[in-house]
Amino acid sequence: MAINDFDFVLFGGGGDLAMRKLIPALYMLARSKGGFPPSARIVSVGRHPFSKEEYIAMLDEQAKCHIAPECLSKEAWSAFCDRISYVSVDATDPGTYAALKEDMRSEPGISRVYYLATPPALFSVICQNLKQAGLVTPESRVVLEKPLGRDLASARQINAEVGKVFEEKQIFRIDHYLGKEAVQNLLALRFGNILFEPLWRREWISDVQITIAEELGVGNRMGYYETSGALRDMLQNHLLQLLCIVAMEPPVDSTPDAVRDEKLKVLRALRRFTPNTLVQNVVRGQYRSGHVHGEPVPAYRREPDANPQSRTETFVAVKAEIDTWRWSGVPFFLRTGKRMADSLAEIVVRFKSIPHSIFAQPISSFQPNSLVIRLQPDEGLSLSLMAKMPGDGMRLRPADLGLDFRETFKKPRMEAYERLLMDVLRNQLTLFMRSDELEAAWEWVEPILEFWDQEDNEPVFYSAGSWGPGAASALIGRDGLQWREEALPEM
């Protein structure tokens, strides 16, 4: 699908997200097959009064290094930078938007994309000021970066206030995990093949584990992270979106609302927490000092600018249950954390054990079949089966059938932000959250936040470089299960 002519207006154009992800993604799209229309433009917006030359110099220093060297050429970079202008705007001052209006084109048929890479507190005021300045047209779109609120009330407020300026079909709530090839391949696996559909239900699946683990600590994001924590930063959006794709019913087609209707049904079917189940089914952790790759790292409370009495969680594990015919009785275990033993993101669908062994080894020695969808660092699929070991006798051990996307598909893959920005420019909403979907996710996690806000509720500690607190192992152990890395047999 061709991309129509556009002005892409990037609020927060001098920020970290713009430099690391958005500008490199736009460059890759501009140089791809088909590319951008010749007159398409990128307008970076920020408070600092840069000249165009100063801003391009900043891109040379801070954004160019995030583009693969083999994809860079002097000519392509120069042509890309020719599309860019910079406008100094105070997002909260309506009077400064006149400079933005002057810089933008007014010809009919030009799409205007407003990307708000800003704190969510500015979403409403930016949208209102754009409308007041006469910058919102029927062809306009707005892209909202997470976090979309701090709780249900603030998410509803953002939805309502942005909704006064833009129609729902113009609002793109971005979750970059949905742009990953492996996540889209999960959709292809489920709805483009017949093999797993008869097994994709409670009769055959034991449990589902979804993990997003990071070796890194908070780095220079302490100001943001201290007010967010792992639940708001990762679980309420990324992990729940992955759960929805695993658990959703087949949509009638791949149109945006058909897919998002089914995801919404999953969120509404999640069993709500009670005070008793919160204690049993939610673990809140914070890393203390430890070692990562043999190097000592400080505790969260001793990171630069940290609150020495902070109760902010850097780890969360949750047992979720979906009250539908397909999934009743199948636990979904979600976890995410910083300063973990490894950096990975994966979905593990574990099937039930065989009912009887005909071999001279007990059922307890059989590893249940499992499907592992790896999202990072290497995107791919693997199916764990039991197979006969070579040699005399009939001794079985686990073996994996693997699909490495990089090796199987030689075509270069699009990074998540490339894919999602392309969908924004093409006006494709399938991979973006709808307002009711966002609010349903907050409704489910809000009891956890309220429980944690109680004065006597403290996080449990885990050593940096581990797989999290022991309470997370106890959480899954109460169902007679183990996290994948704990369940892997020794070779």
From TrEMBL:
Keywords: Carbohydrate metabolism, Glucose metabolism, NADP, Oxidoreductase
Root EC class: oxidoreductase
Domain Glucose-6-phosphate dehydrogenase C-terminal: 187-484
Catalytic site: 238
NCBIfam families noted in UniProt: PRK12853.1-3, zwf
Homology family: Belongs to the glucose-6-phosphate dehydrogenase family.
Name this protein carries in UniProt: Glucose-6-phosphate 1-dehydrogenase
Organism: Noviherbaspirillum pedocola
Organism phylogeny: Bacteria, Pseudomonadati, Pseudomonadota, Betaproteobacteria, Burkholderiales
Gene name of the encoded protein: zwf
